[in-house]
Amino acid sequence: MWKDSNEFNSQENEESKYGLSSHLLSDNTTTFLKEVWNLWDEQFWSNFLLKQGYDQIYFNGISARNKKCFKPFNSKILEHGKSFKNTIGQYIEIGSSNSKSKLPFGRITDIGKILTKYEKIKDNEEENKKQIILLHESFVTRIGIVDERIQSFCQSKYSASDDEEICFFNIFKKTGIYLPKKQENNNSIDLNSSNFQKDQIGLNLKKWLKESAPKLDFLLIHLGIIEKLEGGSDVEKIRASINNIQKFNHSLNIILISGRGKPHNLPGETRFLNYSQVANYTSDGLSKFMLTDLCQSARKTDI
Fold it and tell me: Which of 177, 205, 214, 296 has the most CB atoms less than 10 A away?
């Protein structure tokens, strides 16, 4: 995800590619996997964090790397949403028992034990490189969701452990998950509407997609929304709609979702997930870590 194919083909990476292939030829898969994760780690830090202006990740105040820091990316687990209002400028995990148990530390739900485990993993990065990278990657990955069911869910509120009620829309945004609001600045983007011409819902949604796409790594969009947006279920109309969104961000991974099983009108080159899979880590029990992993695992339907 963080590695541009043209960059990987540059001359400076010839040595890395040769090293990787030599491990495979010698049947040394353990060393091969270790080198792959080393490459992934290197590209994660240089291609994403540094380009975004960050040079460090902090997880509940713990440094991910023992280096001098100028601009950290601050991430935090809250105990059942406690002190949400004090997390300005921070990435958060809401810290429900469900979300904590999904983190890469086994089924630990106590925040103190999670952080202790994180410190031990961090101090032994070579052995646990994959877990560290996947965790950090979930912090910074930006996911857009255009689905009427999840949009409706986000209107509801979460009761935090300090009696604060937090709109799920705001929680999702703090975790790096973005959705269009039903009503914003007198513009309606009510995805439940059966008529996208009414109140210019279709035009407002297209504007939201144009503005949001450049900021996203993944976009999950309900096939039914595309059909309403284009006024039909023809495969070519769906393909054209996806291509139009892709123009706003050529590296954006667009994933269609549907609750109808695998629809017959999916363009073969399109990535697909069943709605129930997405709901598992959003409306049924928010876990940004698992949602990121799910997005990474989505495959094209013609493979």
Answer: 177
Please check whether residues 136 and 147 belong to one and the same domain: no
Do the domain assignments include residue 277?
A: yes
| Rounded-to-integer distance, Cα 158 and Cα 164, Å | 8
Say yes or no: 147 and 135 in one domain.
no
Residue with tokens 């080159």: 269
Interaxial angle between packed helices 29-43 and 129-140, expressed in degrees from 0 to 180 and rounded to the nearest 10? 30
**What's this model's pTM, rounded to 2 decimal places?**
0.87
Angle at 218 between CA 299 and CA 189, to 5 degrees: 120
Q: Are residues 179 and 256 in the same domain?
A: yes
Q: What is the pLDDT of residues 244-279, one digit of tens each?
A: 999 999 999 999 999 877 888 888 889 999 999 999
Neighbours of 262 (CB within 10 A): 9
Q: Give pLDDT < 70 ranges for the chain.
A: 1-28, 48, 66, 125-127, 303
At 294, list the tokens: 């799910």
Other Cβ atoms within 10 Å of 247 Cβ, number? 10
> Is the domain of 195 the same as that of 129?
no
Residues 74, 75, 77, CA angle at the centre, nearest 5°?
145
Query: What's the sign of the alpha-carbon dihedral 60, 94, 218, 1?
Result: positive
The single-letter code of the amino acid at 182 is K
CA Rg value for the chain: 21
CA 47/CA 170 separation, integer angstroms: 28
